[in-house]
Amino acid sequence: MKLLEYEAKKILRDCQVATPDGVVVNTEDEPSLPRVLKVQVPIGGRGKAGGVIVVRTNDEYNAAFTKLQSVTVGGFTPSCIYAEELLEVERELYLSLVINRESSQIELVAHPDGGVDIESHTPDSFYRQSINGDNLDNIGQTVADYLNINPQAFIVTDMIEKLYRCFVKNDATLLEINPLVLTKSGELVAADCKLELDDAANFRHPEWDFEAKSRSANFVTLNNQGTVATIANGAGLAMATVDATKDTGLEPANFLDIGGGANEASVTRAFEEIMHYPNVAAIIINIFAGITKCDEVARAVIAAKKNIDALPALFIRLDGTNYEQAAQLLEDEQIAVLATLAECIAAAKKVATV
Ligand code: GDP
Ligand code: MN
Questions:
Q1: Which residue stretches of 20-152 are H helix?
Q2: Is residue 97 located within the same domain as residue 75?
Q3: What's the mean pLDDT in 94-110?
Q4: Is 57 among the domain residues?
Q5: Out of 66-80, 244-258, 334-348, least confident range
Q6: Is residue 148 situated within a structural domain?
Q7: Could you identify the atom of ligand 1 that is nearest to the CA of residue 191?
Q8: Residue range(s) defining the domain that contains residue 252
Q9: Residues 156 and 276 in one domain
Q10: Alpha helices, DSSP H only, in the chain?
Q11: Pocket test for ligand 1, best of 12, 84, 192 (most atoms within 8 A of CB)
Q12: Which of 30, 175, 177, 326 can bridge 295 by disulfide, Cβ–Cβ 3.0-4.6 Å?
């Protein structure tokens, strides 16, 4: 689960990591100025996409707020806009913790030249060191030397310790601070934060209540720009649906296994998720109902048709438990049911670009 920046920073603050003050703003809010306004999307690259704007006056604030609402980053539209205290930036550094799956260790990664061009550095120019609770004492000095901020060695040690504890406590798989800002007054502040949490640890975090959590664990984005969305039940059928769609040259946006316990509410949520994709023109629904009941799926389809504006074209194949009721419900609403997945895909191809 990828958190939004404002959610991640709340966790950093809870772990005493130095973070700028910030607030999620709505249209009518007038936060104190100056500020940096940042669109909240579950992806980086906002700076380059025009999603980060410094504002110093009310007029600038209003203009930037309006502009940011229509910014998209990698196809994602903003969940909300975050207004943060403006920093006096001396240098931008890079610091992250990530799970190295080969060594099964938490790895600290650092680079003296952080910021929006981090991807331009060669992989071997990054400092990498496995860390654990026992080897944190000396690492701050080494990293401070590497980042060329020797006077801050003590602060770096303290920050690494806090980030490490934060990472472990929250079952993170990635905690990336880019940029870690060295301010003109010599402080280190986490100016941006990407935090990914391990969905498998959900059960031991009753406090997890994030925007991304509404998404079913079995819902996976394949291509945010994809033109065909899929809803299927059972991982095998869901994968086969995605593969068959892709094989015809169409671009599937997602994988979704609605699972055996699917009901009208969970299928309705799937439609809501799909509506976040900007380019989806067709939704293929492929259900072979065993525990799932076809009529529950049919009710969700009918509700989606009624309630969701600009719902993409639906191509439905269903069979199995309660098929007859489902067929009747859909027929009453003049919603077609196709006989095979191949027919659904052929029909989708007529409305979705390849
Ligand atoms: P990203 O592009 O999605 O990673 O968004 P960031 O939050 O990292 O912001 C992009 C860039 O905006 C940073 O690298 C900084 O150069 C700049 N930036 C962000 N916050 C501030 C700030 O408070 N003050 C100043 N001067 N620049 C900022
Ligand atoms: Mn960043």
A1: 58-69, 139-147
A2: no
A3: 96
A4: yes
A5: 66-80
A6: yes
A7: 20
A8: 219-349
A9: no
A10: 5-14, 58-69, 139-147, 153-169, 235-247, 264-274, 294-307, 323-332, 341-351
A11: 192
A12: 326
